[in-house]
Amino acid sequence: MAGDDKYPESTGRRRFVKGVVGSATLASVGTAGAASLKTTTAPSGEGGGITQFMGMENTAGPAPRGMPQIPIKIDDEGYVKGFFPEASTRTEQGREVTVAEAEVGGMTYSANWFQYCGVQTYKGIKPDADMDNYFRYKEGAKYDWQSSEVEAGNKVHVDDFSDYETWGNNVGKAGLGKPATVTWRSQDVEASQTMTVQLIRSTKVEKMANENEWLKASTKQGFIANLNKCTHFCCVPMFKGDPGSAKFGAADLIYCPCHQSVYDPFSIVKESFVALPRPEDD
């Protein structure tokens, strides 16, 4: 039925396939607002398998699920970083394996959350990788404020978002939140191994954190972040970054121009998927 189709009504763009690394079949089990749970079935593998995560809800388009959220920390000097669990070892099926896992806001948060679309091969996702967790501004960002007011490669600071309550551009409504495109755990790696992150500071996030255990633990001072890798065909969406998103009712949401998938950064849902295994060390 047309009403069940998650594609927006208008899909004039040519539908092309790009950057696909691995796939899985999604079986939805029903939703109940921010507590909804979706499940996926597929073969398991070392460092992968069925994984529950918290993510920005997919509200339209062909994407099978939301994009995983990254818990946030802010240091004493006001610099913003993503939290990555410390590595530990445990025995699985008679062999010792290294994992990155921690309890955050009632959820088991792990590196598995990000193991899709080829990210499972990135150096920064290895549990024992010696990487910097600070968010840094990405070169070539499409937000005018980012290209004119901060330098690519610099660490993100709270003060850079001082106008987050009123900020606006030519996309959607002003005052919903101030975004930036940043990198995470990606220093001294090839460009193809860069983990791109959508960072937003919003008063809506501050209010949400007062009402939810997970968000209270995973957001700080209105900042919220997600791995910016579309779960459909691995493109890079943007929050309030594409004027064309208005045509699909997504001007105030995270919009992927490849196939018009839409994500709501202010609706965080619990889902599950089959995380792809990391390659074994040589």
Describe the protein in words.
42% of the residues are buried. The strands form 5 sheets. The protein has a 5-stranded antiparallel beta sheet with strand order 4-3-16-15-14, with helices on one face. It has a 4-stranded antiparallel beta sheet with strand order 10-11-12-13. The chain has a 3-stranded antiparallel beta sheet with strand order 7-8-9. The chain is globular. The protein is 7% helix and 31% strand. The protein has 282 residues and is mainly beta. The chain has one domain. Strand 15 and strand 16 form a beta hairpin. It contains 3 helices and 16 strands.
Topology overview:
Blueprint: E1 25-28, E2 38-41, E3 49-60, E4 67-68, E5 72-74, E6 80-82, E7 87-92, E8 95-104, E9 107-110, E10 136-137, H1 144-149, E11 178-183, E12 196-201, H2 203-209, H3 213-218, E13 223-227, E14 238-239, E15 254-256, E16 261-275
Antiparallel strand pairs: 1-2, 3-4, 3-16, 5-6, 7-8, 8-9, 10-11, 11-12, 12-13, 14-15, 15-16
Organism: Haladaptatus pallidirubidus
GO molecular function: 2 iron, 2 sulfur cluster binding
Protein name: Ubiquinol-cytochrome c reductase iron-sulfur subunit
The N- to C-terminal Cα distance equals: 50 Å
Structural class: mainly beta
Radius of gyration: 18 Å
Low-confidence stretches: 1-45
What is the mean pLDDT? 87
Strand order of the largest sheet: 4-3-16-15-14
**Separate helix tally:** 3
Q: Percent of residues in helical segments?
A: under 10%
Which sheet architecture does the biggest sheet show? Answer: 5 strands, antiparallel
Strand content: 25-35%
Q: How many individual domains?
A: 1
Based on Cα principal axes, name the global outline.
Answer: globular
Succession of helices and strands: EEEEEEEEEEHEEHHEEEE
Give the strand tally. Answer: 16
